[in-house]
């Protein structure tokens, strides 16, 4: 869900929401297409793939991660953590695989690495979109992501949407390459008037210093960055409008296209965790709230 480590994590891409997750995943697509094609040929004739059986036999699954907080990373004590790895630990244990092993890589290398069998599954909170669905298969999303604004305490201008920003002639900022650039432009904001800053910390500083009225980012990161601020707050999460329709993205685990059996088994356990509320308990320590819980499906996101 990124620009440099710890940033908001999404990059402008028309029609899709995404972050560095989308941009780098798309850049990697050319290399991944060849690898994906090879994987399909190699596994032709298999009934949904044999990876699940192999993982159970060896007792460990290799997770592709991209070192992004809060999605999947190695903490200061050298331990694997993040919303996706912690979810993977629970799901794979239920599937009869007791251990997970991290395989760190750059975000743009996740899909090529998966399809060249450097690891078994992508556990990096990857956004599901049509481009990626041509290269991998996704479980249903384990979270969704909305936008939010950083504003001065009390939100004096009453800014709750990009349309509000335009109507009230607010001074607007967002991050380098963020999807929010296009959301503001689509709402009628002049792109040359947008203040572009490196990340959400710089955006908070700009709001606190009065250089802008609002900074736009994802609900998760804006919520976290204002926690210690005495001058600024985050607005309630909202979905930007794309061609008049609410746009919400979802992040999910990715699998090689031939491994439908593993993906389906993963989905079955994921849905049980959703119904029981255990999924939220796993994700909550990483800053996720009930607003990020979702019933979106990979099928509907792949079709966009």
Mind telling me the C-alpha Rg? 19 Å
Fraction in beta strands: 15-25%
**How far do the termini sit from each other?**
18 Å
Low-confidence stretches: 1-45
Overall pLDDT confidence: 87
CATH architecture assignment name of the largest domain: 3-Layer(aba) Sandwich
Strand-pairing-aware structural class: alpha/beta
General form? elongated
Main β-sheet description: 6 strands, mixed
How many structural domains does the protein architecture include? 2
The number of E-state strands comes to 15
CATH secondary-structure class of the largest domain: Alpha Beta
Order of secondary-structure elements: HHHEEEHEHEHEEEHEHEHEHEEEEHHH
Secondary structure tally, helices: 13
The CATH topology label of the largest domain is D-Maltodextrin-Binding Protein, domain 2
The fourth-level CATH homologous superfamily of the largest domain is Periplasmic binding protein-like II
What portion of residues is helical? 25-40%
Domain Solute-binding protein family 3/N-terminal: 60-290
Protein name: Ectoine/hydroxyectoine ABC transporter substrate-binding protein EhuB
Keywords: Signal
GO molecular function, one term: ectoine binding
